[in-house]
Amino acid sequence: MHMHGDSKHAVVLLSGGLDSATALAAARHEGFGCHTLTVAYGQRHAVELRAAERVSKSLGAVEHRVFELDLRSFATSALTGNIAVPKDRAPEHMSSGIPVTYVPARNTIFLALALGWAEVLGCFDIFVGVNAVDYSGCRPEFVAAFERLANLATKAGVEKRGRFCIHAPLISLSKSEIIKLGVSLGVDYSLTHSCYDPAAGGAACGRCDSCKLRREGFISAGVSDPTVYEMA
Q1: pLDDT over 90 for what percent of the chain?
Q2: For a 10 Å CB count at each end of the chain, is N or C smaller?
Q3: What is the maximum span of the chain, computed from C-alpha positions, in angstroms?
Q4: What is the pLDDT of residues 143-193, one digit of tens each?
């Protein structure tokens, strides 16, 4: 157990992507000692697991854990199965409906794991880099509902030893606003990984929805994009 004195601690869900790295930087900026949790869920872009470890170290987390949970056993998603990752889609296609890269109930499952670890650590704050503006469409109502659940579903919550708080600092920001915030908090985005279908050497494809959103985010933020793309 790594809890020290009276300092405040938090569990931060860290995928190795741009958003979760920024959420970690926000938690550190608020003075939290951060315990980062990455879930290895059978995703085809396992390169993001290495990115998560790099980001965690670079942003001074107290400890980093990888939780193995193979979602391939029930999830049919382009991120876990043999379905092709969509490429070269226009923005209107990206925003219409839920894409095949959706992993069933992923945010709920990951938050539940973070909640379990927070209870073991004895802390009540969980940070998550979810965002309502990009096309994964995580809504503020979901975050509020999970927070209510957290306080009903745990011994610590029921015994009123503290009140669980789910922090979603990026919930209403656009990709370019997230990048500007991260730059102001010292995030090194060259350590992060966003691509759903990276090349064998780890280079980003530049063509999946996630690459396109990332690339456009850097352009609109006016920040140079440190990403190594497979194709220019």
Answers
A1: 62
A2: C
A3: 56
A4: 999 999 999 988 988 899 999 999 999 999 999 999 999 999 999 999 999
Q: How confident is the model at residue 120 (pLDDT cuts 50, 70, 90)?
A: very high
The pLDDT, as a whole number, for residue 44 is 63
Taking the C-alpha atoms of residue 29 and residue 27, their distance in angstroms, rounded to an integer, is 5
The answer to whether residue 222 sits within a structural domain is no
- In a domain, residue 214? The reply is no
DSSP 3-27: --TT--EEEEE--SSHHHHHHHHHH
In a domain, 49, yes or no: yes
HEC-encoded secondary structure of 148-212: HHHHHHCHHHHCCCCCCEEECCCCCCCHHHHHHHHHHCCCCHHHCCCCCCCCCCCCECCCEHHHH
Give the residue numbers spanning the domain of 36.
9-174
Three-state DSSP at 119 gives: helix
Structure letter (DSSP) for residue 71: G
Q: Is residue 183 part of a domain?
A: no
**pTM of the full structure:** 0.89
